[in-house]
Design a protein that fits this description.
Layout lengths: L1 H17 L1 H4 L2 H19 L4 H14 L17 H10 L3 H12 L3 H5 L4 H6 L2 H12 L4 H8 L6 H11 L4 H13 L1 H12 L2 H4 L11 H18 L4 H15 L4 H25 L3 H4 L2 H29 L22 H13 L6 H26 L1
Length: about 375
């Protein structure tokens, strides 16, 4: 009887030693609080819920304390989460996201007013500013390049670059990129108001011209040839972006386009959000480097927004009256599609209720997607 009792006690003791309650630390509790915060702002404030809810729940999963060796954690070879995380580590998910983005994107605003692509290019200054600052703070060139891409406000691109240049920082970079994408409506408006005058905010732009079907079909073909020849290292992202757009604009592959823009991108978004969240295990994520990355991400995002607005103001000096661009669309050069374009429109309506800027803002917004992928290709070409 006593042997059975001892066996029972040993079994209970062993079971309790495997529970999360026995292994929890303050770091785990901090990260769980972060995950709950992400879920809360996604539901209450409607900030990028399709991204923040999977990421927030992933943070909860990744920070449930466990005993190593049971193939539970995302970093344990053979675990289910580790297998799903393979798509992040090897850069498989980001190109699939770009395929879906291409199938959902209408480039008409950019085609009708090609000079708007310059705004998208100007906003990428945030990437290279953050890269320079990261170097000054002691990060290696490859780590600095991965951190800098946060300024493009493009989560898939940030994951794609960091998986190649700085896998050890992937979790912090991805969380930072998606956090600032979600906070676009909070961060950008004060910068836009600070850098513009009341007169500039009510500039009316000419309505975009009607774009033909032929132009829409030729655009992705010509763009992939031009950008891929310029930066072949950006081929995985740019190729899938323009391929998805060709599926949409050709109108003869509607089933493929609907799949790419619907079920496929939804599935990949779930997988990428959940696994990126899981990668923020307290013992690997809560480090001084993660805090620095968040600070640098904010700096790059602010510089990118300011760069787009200031470029429009400079560009307007060379444009005639009637052709000037409203500087409030300069913020949309960062590639948080379509949130930054919505911010442009919302800010414009505050000063003139009849001045709708959304279609104009979509031009630099989609140009920002292309620009961030090109910038990523440039970084890979001399760092990888």
């Amino acid at each position: 009887m006593s042997e059975f009792f001892n066996f029972f006690i040993e079994g209970i003791t062993q079971f309790l030693s495997y529970t999360g309650f026995a292994n929890v630390t303050l770091r785990h509790l901090i990260m769980i609080a972060v995950g709950l915060f992400f879920i809360a702002i996604a539901i209450i404030k409607d900030y990028e819920p399709l991204l923040l809810i999977p990421i927030g729940f992933g943070i909860l999963l990744g920070n449930i304390p466990f005993t190593s060796g049971l193939q539970t954690g995302i970093y344990e070879n053979g675990s289910v989460l580790n297998i799903l995380y393979f798509g992040v580590m090897k850069g498989i998910y980001p190109p699939l996201i770009f395929l879906g983005i291409g199938a959902m994107t209408d480039f008409s605003a950019l085609i009708s007013n090609p000079k708007l692509i310059l705004i998208g290019a100007a906003a990428q200054i945030g990437i290279f500013a953050a890269y320079a600052i990261a170097l000054l703070l002691g990060f290696t060139p490859m780590e600095a390049g991965a951190i800098g891409i946060i300024g493009g406000a493009d989560g898939p691109t940030a994951i794609f670059i960091s998986s190649r240049l700085a896998p050890n920082l992937l979790g912090a970079i991805a969380i930072s990129a998606y956090s600032y994408m979600a906070l676009v409506p909070v961060i950008q408006p004060p910068i836009m108001r600070l850098l513009t005058t009341p007169k500039e905010r009510v500039i009316r732009m000419r309505p975009p011209r009607v774009v033909t079907r032929r132009e829409k079909i030729l655009f992705p073909i010509l763009c992939i040839l031009l950008t891929a020849f310029l930066v072949p290292t950006g081929l995985p992202l740019l190729g899938m972006l323009f391929f998805g757009n060709l599926l949409k604009e050709s109108t003869v592959t509607r089933r493929l386009s609907n799949t790419a823009s619907g079920p496929l991108i939804d599935i990949v978004t779930i997988l990428i959000g959940l696994t990126v969240g899981c990668s923020t295990q307290a013992n690997t994520f809560l480090r001084w480097e993660s805090i620095l990355i968040f600070i640098l991400g904010a700096c790059s995002f602010i510089v990118a927004t300011a760069g787009g607005v200031l470029f429009v103001k400079l560009f307007n000096l060379f444009l005639k009256e009637g052709n000037k661009i409203n500087p409030l669309i300069g913020n949309s050069g960062v590639s948080a599609v379509p949130d930054s374009a919505r911010v442009s429109n919302a800010e414009g309506l505050k000063y003139d209720r009849t001045n709708f800027l959304l279609m104009h803002a979509m031009g630099p917004n989609v140009a920002g997607v292309i620009g961030s992928a090109v910038a990523a290709g440039i970084l890979l070409s001399f760092l990888y």
